[in-house]
TrEMBL record:
This is Acetolactate synthase small subunit. It is an enzyme of class 2 (transferase). It catalyses: 2 pyruvate + H(+) = (2S)-2-acetolactate + CO2. It comes from Parasulfitobacter algicola. Residues 30-105 form the ACT domain. Transmembrane segments: none annotated.
Length: 187
């Protein structure tokens, strides 16, 4: 009878060890799904996330093909690589979903978000808020004697950075659209 010896630190190559090597690190992914524009589709997609305890950081939906009755759902989510793969597979199995793309892994993409910031302040804080808005290329879309509403467009990190700087100056309210994203290039 021969004994099988495995060196310390070596892995076994058993037929029962079919689980791929996934990392436990949490990753942020941007998913784009092309879906039928019909009642209940968004609820089914959201149900997939809530029913399994997956988090949605950003969600945008808009019709992109009026004649073909198609909408695009852009979802920013986080999870381990295994969870992201499960989300993509489960999204692809929902009947009105035509295609699912993981823009994070499929190549270069462009992400933009629009946000409105209401900032109160007078005197030096008002001047500083206007100066920072100019640096961030934010537009003043409303102004009163004691507040501004700024409009800013950019990557989510830019929006976050602008919010961090406006907080000590009198940030009152924020409205964000969520991420809109497209793959770069001709495909």
């Amino acid at each position: 009878m021969s004994a099988l010896k495995i060196k310390k630190g070596a892995t076994s190559h058993s037929a029962y060890n079919l689980r791929p090597n996934y990392s436990d690190t949490i990753e942020r992914h941007t998913l784009a799904a092309l879906v039928e524009n019909e009642p209940g589709v968004l609820a089914r997609v959201i149900g997939l996330f809530s029913g399994r305890g997956y988090n949605i950081e950003s969600l945008t939906v808009a019709e992109v093909d009026h004649e073909g009755h198609l909408s695009r759902i852009t979802i920013v989510t986080t999870g381990t690589p295994q969870v992201i793969e499960q989300i993509k597979a489960q999204l692809g199995r929902i009947v009105p979903v035509h295609e699912v793309h993981d823009l994070t892994v499929e190549g270069p993409s462009v992400e933009r978000e629009l946000a409105l910031f209401k900032v109160s302040g007078d005197g030096d804080k008002r001047i500083e808020a206007l100066r920072l808005a100019e640096i961030f290329r934010a537009n003043v879309v409303d102004s009163t004697l004691n507040s501004f509403v700024f409009e800013i467009t950019g990557a989510p990190e830019k929006i976050d950075a602008f919010a961090d700087l406006m907080r000590p100056l009198g940030l009152l309210e924020v409205a964000r659209t969520g991420v809109a994203a497209l793959a770069r290039g001709s495909e």
